[in-house]
Amino acid sequence: MTTTEPAPISLQPLGIIHTPYKQKFAIPRQPGLVSEAIGEIRFFSPFNDINCFRGIEQFSHLWLLFRFHQVQERGWKPTVRPPRLGGNQRVGVFASRSTHRPNGLGLSVVEFVSLKTDKGQVSLQVRGMDLLDGTPIVDIKPYLPYADAHPGAAGGFASQAPQPVPVRFSADAMIQLEQLSPEPDKMQRLIQAVLAQDPRPAYKSSQSRPQSFAIRLDNLNIHWQSEQNRIEVVGIENICA
Ligand code: SAM
Known about the structure:
The protein is mostly beta strands and 241 residues long. Helices cover 12% and strands 32% of the residues. It is built from four helices and twelve strands.
């Protein structure tokens, strides 16, 4: 039997997700690790129709299928080096959750928060996503615990969630946060949860000397330092300033 190669498939984005993650650096590596992060999907016509979502509030969790749009032009390779293996061991692309993959599709379970309609715009609020701001969403499906949850499943080289790293804030950073954020407590919890995931590249996290980094969350630029297994937020500024 001969196999004919099928024609390429094109996808139509349903909408775009808006998240606090304005750059790739420091986005959690999987969903559910930072439940403080809330995102909003805004839909385009013809999906901007409340009927498309009827009954969705009965599900606590949803699958999002999306496009890794920011790395599309970099293509893919048969093997990748997952950060969980220290970034120097190769596995097959299909044995990984790498962003560099054929078709560039991502898959994340997120928590349903709410569904709203405002001036004809339908939006879906979700929690705990691992998606860059502006990511195109290509499908949404309810998460079915009886079919999708496998508590005894083998997780290969990523069998456990990463151990959180302790994060503290300097006195200056706390003052800046109070001045710059309309909801400083919420923002502090978000920053803490994001940094506790230790966003340092694998090769840098093995270095013991102090290192400085910055991440962007919402409209804030957050400066932080790491030394061995500790992280300190040392300064916060408004990006629009
Ligand atoms: N849970 C999804 C999956 O398994 O398909 C994504 C896993 S992937 C390892 C998560 C990372 O993708 C994030 O840490 C972020 O760096 C990156 N990412 C998220 N949204 C992206 C986008 N739109 N374009 C490129 N990279 C993105």
